[in-house]
Specification:
Elements (H helix, E strand, L loop, with lengths): L6 E2 L7 H4 L3 E3 L5 E9 L6 E6 L8 E6 L3 E5 L5 E5 L3 H5 L7
Parallel strand pairs: 2-7
Antiparallel strand pairs: 1-6, 2-3, 3-4, 4-5, 6-7
């Protein structure tokens, strides 16, 4: 997927209501997970990403700083993110506990 034409979100748009459920694409442009929930708002927030699993089962939640993710809207207005992390790297992170 070519993300170069997608509109980047401003830091004021990094809110739970917009980001929850967003697909995250990794360094190899494969889907690596989805946004489970957000702690805080803006560029300093922690994004909790559900990594792995199948159909929502067995996914592992990990915390990633918002600054490690580039959130954007595609041509259809759907919000997604791109990160330099790979799925393997994310799966090796410590599990996030509420």
């Amino acid at each position: 997927m070519d993300h170069s034409n997608h509109v980047r979100l401003s830091s004021t748009e990094l809110t739970p209501s917009l980001l929850e459920g967003a697909t995250i694409y990794g360094a190899d442009d494969h889907k690596v997970g989805h946004v489970s929930h957000v702690h805080g708002s803006g560029a300093a927030s922690q994004i909790i990403v559900d990594v792995g699993g199948f159909l929502g089962l067995g996914a592992k939640p990990v915390a990633v700083p918002a600054s490690d993710l580039e959130f954007m809207r595609d041509e259809d207005g759907d919000i997604h993110a791109v990160t330099a992390w790979t799925k393997d790297q994310l799966e090796k992170m410590p599990e996030h506990h509420h």
